[in-house]
């Protein structure tokens, strides 16, 4: 579909662990760092109708991201609005589906719809790709500890 992104990753963590990575500010601050910002600061109210605000700082410039949680079905589904300067401050919708893949792994599918332009699709494809790769990397590094623990 036009102006939509769909990305998939396998993560070495359970669906519940990955769900928590999306709904706990301390975890979001560690992996939701697309395009190499200096830092991320998240304030989350993860409940249907709850809002979030995420500031990504890159080279001293703060890029605000806001949204509202539309659906939360722990541990399998999150859906929320996403508004930022890169969506031309227009409302877009992100859906994250989490499915158990066996051996403590999760198949994650992210769909980002209603992006306002092909430039927004390109910008968000790069951003979500970097963020999801960081999420995968964080759990891949933790995997030996999980196996031993």
Structure overview:
With 149 residues, the chain is an alpha+beta fold. Helices cover 32% and strands 40% of the residues. The chain has 3 helices and 7 strands. The chain has helices at 15-23, 25-31, 118-148, and strands at 5-11, 39-44, 51-58, 61-73, 77-82, 92-102, 105-113. It has a 7-stranded antiparallel sheet. Helix 1 (15-23) crosses helix 2. It is globular.
Computed CA radius of gyration, to the nearest angstrom: 15 Å
Can you list the strand order of the major beta sheet? 1-7-6-5-4-3-2
Which parts are unreliable, with pLDDT below 50 for 5 consecutive residues or more? Answer: 145-149
**Gap from first CA to last CA:** 43 Å
* Percent of sequence in beta strands: 35-45%
Total number of helices: 3
Helix-strand pattern: EHHEEEEEEH
Q: Mind describing the biggest β-sheet?
A: 7 strands, antiparallel
Please tally the β strands and state the result. Answer: 7
| Percentage of residues in helical conformation | 25-40%
């Amino acid at each position: 579909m036009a102006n939509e992104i769909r990305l998939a990753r396998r993560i070495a963590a359970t669906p519940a662990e990955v769900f928590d990575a999306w709904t706990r500010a301390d975890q979001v601050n560690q992996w939701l760092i697309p395009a190499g910002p200096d830092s991320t600061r998240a304030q989350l109210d993860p409940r249907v109708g709850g809002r979030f605000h995420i500031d990504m700082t890159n080279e001293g410039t703060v890029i605000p991201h806001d949204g509202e949680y539309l659906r939360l079905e722990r541990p399998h589904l999150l859906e929320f609005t996403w508004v930022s300067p890169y969506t031309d401050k227009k409302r877009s919708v992100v859906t994250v589906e989490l499915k158990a893949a066996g051996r403590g792994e999760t198949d994650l599918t992210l769909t980002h719809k209603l992006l306002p332009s092909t430039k927004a699709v390109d910008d968000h494809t790069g951003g979500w790709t970097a963020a999801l790769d960081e999420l995968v990397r964080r759990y891949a590094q933790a995997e030996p500890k999980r196996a031993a623990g």
